[in-house]
Amino acid sequence: MNSKKVDDRIPVTVLSGYLGAGKTTILNHVLNNRDGLKVAVIVNDLSEVNIDADLIRDGGGLSRTEEKLVEMSNGCICCTLRDDLLQEVEKLAKAGSFDYILIESTGIGEPLPVAQTFTYVDEEQDIDLSKLTRLDCMVTVVDAHHFWQDFNSPESLQQRNQEAGEDDTRHVVHLLTDQVEFCDVLIINKCDMVSTEELEKLKNALRGLQPSAKIITTSYGQIDPKQILNTGLFDFDEASQSAGWIKELLKEEHTPETEEYGISSFVYTRKVPFHPERLLNWMAKWPKSVVRSKGLVWLATRNNTAITFSQAGVSRQLTPAGLWVASLSEEERYAYFGADYPKSPDWDDEWGDRVTKLVFIGIELDKEAIIDSLDAALLTQEEMEGNWRELADPLPAF
Ligand SMILES: Nc1nc2c(ncn2[C@@H]2O[C@H](COP(=O)(O)OP(=O)(O)OP(=O)(O)O)[C@@H](O)[C@H]2O)c(=O)[nH]1
User: Fold this and answer.
1) How confident is the model over 238-265, as pLDDT tens digits?
2) Can you tell me the distance from the alpha carbon of 111 to that of 178, in angstroms, rounded to the nearest whole number?
3) ipTM of the complex, rounded to two decimals
4) Which residue puts its alpha carbon closest to atom 27 of ligand 1?
């Protein structure tokens, strides 16, 4: 007897990617080459008028009787329309008449919360999509022609009138980074608009940001549908850890330089705090070769607070991440963690878990110059012995 378990859950592919990257073009191409699959399509548009839905209705060749196009407008499926997405997908899956669900997210949508919708049980609505559906593939589409312009832009979505709501303070580069760092397949579209050399450079940089995804290059979305349908690629834990900076941080052994694809990355680790003013001066003269960096920073003047450092393109941020475990009293540690408080691998008797640990990803990185200039921003021996509170600190209070 064949004991192989048949997975009868309906597979789902989600397309994300910044505005105008080519999601609808790809979707229509895939629909026109769907090889008999009965497909339900969900198209999400931030505005009231769902233009993409019209384009798919006109260009996707969906059967009016056997297939379905669901429009989700006036919001984003990763936030305001999340509940509606749950309900729509549940309805489609329960209908039992489709072989596949294809979702096109809005250009300003983040893929991670959409993926979570398929993997977590929604207690409030009592919907567990993981019983009905199988998230097959998270796809991010990148515009080869516009990528660098957007990635290097200091603009926020609000400045471009593209925000999801009044409290949406995201910058374009953060959105692009979130989209690229969370996917199984990365489609570089509009390759007709760049030279071979430019494309190679872009591919290298994207490979550094996202080392796990399959990268496909195309023009006008002319991909083989098999590359994004029934791939079996999605795995939540893997996707959550697929960003280049996480991979580098988790590596047990740091291979000195990965010259593969011309990209290199390294981790800068120091158990000496930074002088805040010198660190800010260093950040102001940002090394152009660095595409992405992220990690934790130990600042002398904020000795109790671990600080997250995140850079993508021209955007650089220092934000509080929480207290160092070492800054807590024994009673506080007990209250937070019980008898066994976590000791990170970087723990030492003098400073506990305080550490600076930064991942740098870039093209043709001058690693030694970066390390030397960062070292010059650490406290000197003399400063280590002085009063840290008196050091110049231009950062705002957290
Ligand atoms: N030159 C060129 N143009 C393309 C390519 N792919 C799509 N386009 C054009 O780019 C524009 C945007 O494409 P869409 O497929 O609508 O992009 P989208 O990501 O769905 O856009 P939004 O829904 O606004 O986020 C359209 O005018 C397409 O015809 C391509 O590979 N090369």
Assistant:
1) 888 878 888 777 766 555 444 555 678 8
2) 8
3) 0.99
4) 20
The answer to whether the CB of 221 is under 6 A from ligand 1 is yes
Q: What is the DSSP string of 184-203?
A: SEEEEE-GGGS-HHHHHHHH
Among 375, 192, 191, 110, which Cα is nearest to 268's? 375
CB atoms within 10 A of CB 356: 24
Residue nearest to atom 9 of ligand 1 (CA): 22
Q: Domains for the chain: give ranges and CATH numbers.
A: 10-242 (3.40.50.300), 246-390 (3.30.1220.10)
Q: Which candidate, 264, 243, 267, 271, places its Cα nearest to that of 253?
A: 267
CA 365 to ligand 1 center in whole angstroms: 33
Ligand 1 in contact with 30 (CB < 6 A)?
no
Largest CA distance in the chain: 78
Distance between Cα 137 and ligand 1 center (Å) = 21
How many angstroms separate the alpha carbon of residue 159 from the centre of ligand 1? Answer: 22
Sheet holding 315-323, edge to edge: 263-270, 356-363, 290-297, 305-312, 315-323
Range in 95-99, 150-154, 256-260 with the lowest mean pLDDT: 256-260
| Interatomic CA distance for residues 200 and 313, integer angstroms | 18
Residue-wise DSSP of 347-378:
-BTTTBT--EEEEEEEES--HHHHHHHHHTTB
Strands (E), 112-198: 133-143, 185-189
**pLDDT at position 285:** 93
**Residue 11 carries which DSSP code?**
E
Average pLDDT, the chain: 89
- For residue 194 the two structure tokens come to 């760049």
